[in-house]
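Office hours follow-up: a student asked to see two folded examples consecutively, so here they are.
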Amino acid sequence: MNSKFIIGLGNIGNEYTDTRHNAGFAILNALKNHYESQEQIHTVSVKKLKSQIFSIPSKKIYLVYPQTYMNLSGFAVRALIDWYKISNLKNLVIVHDDIALPLGQIRWVAKGGAGGQHGIESIIEHLGGNKEFNRLKFGIGPDPGGEKRSKYVLGKFRDDEKEILNKSLNKALKSLNLFLQGSSMSDLMNEFNVSACS
């Protein structure tokens, strides 16, 4: 069985905790909490990887939190691929926020452009323009547009959003577990790309 790498995108620092832009970290935290009650989790300490990494040896799973800030995520992903000699990008998933999707909706994609998500732009750049890698997009919209966008994505979820946020996190967690159990991308897309939580 090949190792699987789940890479959540976000910004480091307490001021970014629980912000919309750190949805990738939040989903990884939920996945890590899910496995902590069942499996031994090890910390991987390799400074040059520019990431906080937890491994679950019994499952051959790595949970990866790039520590480069969102817009430089490509440096960490490239370092990870080189260190672990990942030849098949289908064994990794990039988990990130997507302002074009409404809160409550997730979307699996196997390839495509960045759609204005700077972390994905950085990854594509450091993969030499390769856009064929799995992504789990987590909706944080609606997009307020213009000058309000930056403040919105770096803001925390409102109290009235928490119920649908938790439902969406559970949906993302369920879909990641299915990916890790061997579900195909087409099956994941058919099951989870359809409708938003309500």
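And the second, which I mentioned at the end of office hours:
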Amino acid sequence: MKRVDLFAVIHKALRLQSARVVGALANCAGDLEATGRALRESRELLEMQIVHARVEETFVVAAIEARRPGAASRLTEAHEEHAVMIERLRTQIDEVERHATPARVHALYLEMTRFIADDFLHMFEEETLAQPLLEECYSQPELAAIAARARESVTPAEERLFAPLVLASLSTAEREVPGSIGKTR
């Protein structure tokens, strides 16, 4: 059986969208159309983050806690911290939408990059600490079942948000592996 990695594919998609957001915000000040696109990209990233944290808490954190109580507390804390940061960013996006000055766009750019930097570190911890812990606690068939339940919990609308980014973030070799991108509706 192929090794089940609960983080790799979705984290690649989140990193891709994060990079797009940073680029869009870095280059949009003074251009209302570009600013509007950057704000839409930013909102999409934040929505993806909310969905991703919900799925991780429900399935990944729960799986870790079931076999190693307390071992996932740092992941939950990070998800809670991110939720607070996301709400602040949403408020900041609303302010920029109401009055898009170069200074406000730049301030949003700085806060968004800070959030993304923190999220990149969080994803690194999940991939290097949580994934090995899951592999220690669960067999590959059990991990595959957890992954399947997690994928099934995603709504069609949420899947439409993620699917283009998942596909864009996969290598050619990954696209050729059956089942590598999850379910298709």
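Two things to take away from it. DSSP finds seven helices and no strands in the chain. The helical segments are 8-26, 32-67, 73-98, 102-137, 140-152, 156-169, 172-175.
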